[in-house]
Amino acid sequence: MGLIAKHIIFTGQVQGIGFRFTAFGAASRHKLNGFVRNLRDGSVEMLAQGNSADVDNCVREIEESFAGYVTETKTEVVPFSPQFKNFKITY
User: Fold this and answer.
1) pTM of the predicted model, to two decimals?
2) Distance in angstroms between the alpha carbons of the first and the last residue of the chain
3) Which of 8, 15, 18, 55 is 20 to 30 A off residue 40, Cα-Cα?
4) What are the structural domain ranges in the chain?
5) Where does the pLDDT of residue 91 fall: very low under 50, low under 70, confident under 90, or very high at 90 and above?
6) Which architecture does CATH list for 3-80?
7) What mean pLDDT comes out for the span 81-91?
8) Which residues are part of the catalytic machinery?
């Protein structure tokens, strides 16, 4: 039940549809720290830190919420960073 950090890139039609707000809600429910933001190429970037199962469940919840919009989800485990104390929508 250790802590983990994952860098996630969601691609598809993921901007302009409330994606970041929904991701923020999911991350909050799963008690994760990190951020979500739009990227210039039209994708959405997320850094999620917390319990491994919570991170995976959060990503799954987001994918299910936007099943018709997300075409690919790239996930990479990255070093955990204690600098993140909450979850934010950043720009």
Assistant:
1) 0.95
2) 31
3) 55
4) 3-80
5) confident
6) 2-Layer Sandwich (3.30)
7) 94
8) 20, 38
The residue to which tokens 């429910």 are assigned: 29
Residue with tokens 């850094």: 47
Q: Rounded to an integer, what distance in angstroms lies between the CA atom of residue 20 and that of residue 38?
A: 8
Q: What is the three-class DSSP state of 65?
A: helix
Q: How many CA atoms lie within 13 A of 4 on its CB side?
A: 16
Q: Which helix (H) or strand (E) holds 36?
A: strand 33-38
How far apart, in whole angstroms, are the C-alpha atoms of residue 41 and residue 13?
11
> For residue 6, what are the CA distances in angstroms to 3, 17, 40, 64, 68?
10, 23, 20, 18, 23
Over residues 11-61, the pLDDT tens digits come to 999 999 999 999 999 999 999 999 999 999 999 999 999 999 999 999 999
